[in-house]
Write a structure and sequence with these properties.
six-stranded antiparallel β-sheet; about 30% strand
Length: about 350
Amino acid sequence: MKRIILILISLLILVMIAGCQNQQEKKTTEEQPEKETVEKQKKEAPDETKAKPNKSNPVKRVATTGVPIKEADKRKNYFGVIVENSVDARPHTGLVNADVVYEMEVEYNITRFLALFHSDIPEKIGPVRSARHYFLPIFQSWNAPFIHYGGTIFAYNNLKRKDLTHLDGIGNGNTYFERDNSRAAPHNAYLITDRLPDLKQKPRNPHFEYTDKVSGFDENVSKITINYSDPNNVHTSYQYDKKAKVYRRILENKPHTDRVTGTQIKTKNLFILYAKHRDMATDGGYIHINFNTKGELDYYVNEKKINGKWKNIKGNIVFFDGIGHKIKALPGKTWIQVVDKQRKSIVEEKGR
């Protein structure tokens, strides 16, 4: 009898164990699809760090060109250079590589270039010449350390008062520069860019914004000529190239080309900034250009013209269109011609 009871108890225990195992297997089977669904949802969910650009998450662009940062893999250092433009300084070296270039007058109606380099830095730039005091607000507005070879007493006095990083060829000529013996001094000092330290500063562009499509044109213009002076042969023109959709730069009725590569200088955006000039009545014929106020400007892009204004706002020179909105430029290179409003000589040829 006892033996029968033990057998029955053993059978009951086996039945209970089997039932528990079946229940556990069922539970595991039911939970598996839920786990797979969760993992699938995780994979399909958008990654916020890789979200597509929208109004709340705009495209991040290089300040000096407007090119999306992910495409600007050639960016290295960041600096400005003062490049000479007398007859003895031509043809220029490296100017074709600059992201942004200003052309403005110095004494005796000769012009000089303020060139900003960031996206495409050539091995050599020049010839490099001296600073003027009214150059400083331009570099300051772009947050650009700048490189020059000497300067006027007015420029040095202003450098003492302003917090601007700069490298001067005077005292450092052998460090950053080399002389080209095929040219006469002072037209032969060239910056060797791989000798430069990491200047660390990052570009800032408060002047205008960038867009992939420009609108709001006032008229069609295919060619623009700026006559700075007759005695010193400074006649600058820009001819629109419909195929390449850029303005090709012309100097003294010839393509303005690079000395090393022979490449013609071209730009996507062209601004003419009208500012008051005055003679400082000093030995040397020095002038002053007033960037501390406001004035008119013209913007040329895609064979079109926009009339606008510029204004110095807390040290930043900001460009506005005719209805007061900050100008939107196309991604690419930019040239800015600074012209005396009182004696401007601008010749425009209408586009078709």
